[in-house]
Amino acid sequence: MPQALEQADGGWAWVVLLATLVTQGLTLGFPTCIGVFFTELQHDFQASNSETSWFPSVLLAVLHAGGPLCSVLVERFGCRVTAMLGGVLASLGMVAGSFSRTLSQLYLTAGLITGLGMCFSFQSSITVLGLYFIRRRALANALASAGVSLGITLWPLLSLYLLEGLGWRGAFLVFGGVLLHCCVCGAILRPVATNRALETRDVPLLPPKTPVLGCLAVCGRTVQRHLAFDILQHNVRYCVYTLGVTWMIVGFPLPHVFLVPYAMWHGVDEQRAALLISIIGLSNIFLRPMAGLVASQRAFASHRKYLFCLAVLLNGLTNLVCAVSADFRVLVGYCLVYSVSMSCIGALIFQVLMDLVPMHRFPSALGLFTTLEGVAVLISPPLAGFLLDTTNNFSYIFYMSSFFLISAALFMGGSFYSLQKKEQQGRHAKEEGARVEAAPEWGHTLEGKDSPEKQLCPEIMYVTSV
């Protein structure tokens, strides 16, 4: 019996928004609490900073890079089943991780399995949210990203409480039960009427005489559908944005992993150090919706990508301040200023991606986008850990983070501005040519025609349709 489909922008969309908010808090907010366990894990396994850093690195990398596999599951089973499967995997990974005897076992369980489960739940909810909201999509993404802020606020406090009473193994066991709530959130993600674009299309196979070529054709179409290499090739803005964010991600997660050890290394007690992460999360609860409200305004619709670049630049400059002094009052001020830029990045990162690609290609574009992010996240904490082992100075980690963030912001902002200037010059040249060829028809313009530039700029099409 076919299942009834929900309507976009309807009443159930707000319930889906709430489920997505909780899911983001449980998944994207979780890695920020790893810093609370960093020193304990290092002592328990007698490992170096670089070796211990591989645990959050694997978790974050799989959380981001599992996009293509998630896209396959969403296409085959739908967002609802995929999100619930993710909750089960995330829970099993943490429970198994609590029994780990070596770091390698921890990488496999709490790193790989949990990260993959979080990826399924998070990306499924983000995909279905973009289908449920059309007119208020920017606002919905910003409100949903506030769940990350809740997670950043609550996860470190819960982790510190459980660490003191149960140790890290008992805490991971409790986390397994908490992450099962992703299954509840996934059950809320009913199919929406506009998700027909995500249904699997029949792939025509070649004749039986050439079975190898038939398999290659199927594999090629599968890769194109779930990794969006064609969009990367033809959409210059998507290419710039993907490369820029990938470069940015090398530096972006470092404060979340190393801020607590950095403060403790400079004499701040463990409770106050964990409070720093909660300050960032608590500030983001209010700042992210505000950023979403600003970004959802029609006047800012065509400038969202520049607002994102400005937020990345501010984030990098703020890390330089943190590297100068480790006094607790200075760190509190750093967290407050850092929260402003972080909230803008969190509210805009997926909305800008939705602006740059057509919505029916968003799952595959997100798959490639997050895969490249995962590669960057995989090397980021171990690289910082190696730098720390070599220099024995936490300040170099924040200098490293600033370098990647500032250079990424300048690259994306400069590239977007250059592309916009070229398109404006091209449009003016065509308009002048049209006026010369059709001088009597002075009132007519080219706005009604689909030029190649317009086809390659989905964000223009999206803004005009709002």
TrEMBL record:
Superkingdom, natural source: Eukaryota
Membrane topology: Multi-pass membrane protein
Name of the protein: Solute carrier family 16 member 5
GO cellular component, one term: basolateral plasma membrane
Listed Pfam families: MFS_1
UniProt GO molecular function: monocarboxylic acid transmembrane transporter activity; symporter activity
Organism: Microcebus murinus
InterPro entries noted in UniProt: MCT (IPR004743), MFS (IPR011701), MFS_dom (IPR020846), MFS_trans_sf (IPR036259), Proton-linked_MCT (IPR050327)
Limits of the Major facilitator superfamily (MFS) profile domain: 13-425
Region (Disordered): 428-452
NCBIfam families assigned to the protein according to its UniProt record, in alphabetical order: 2A0113 (TIGR00892)
Keywords in alphabetical order: Cell membrane, Membrane, Symport, Transmembrane, Transmembrane helix, Transport
Parts of the chain that traverse the membrane: 12-38, 54-74, 81-100, 106-132, 139-158, 170-189, 238-261, 273-294, 306-325, 331-353, 365-384, 396-419
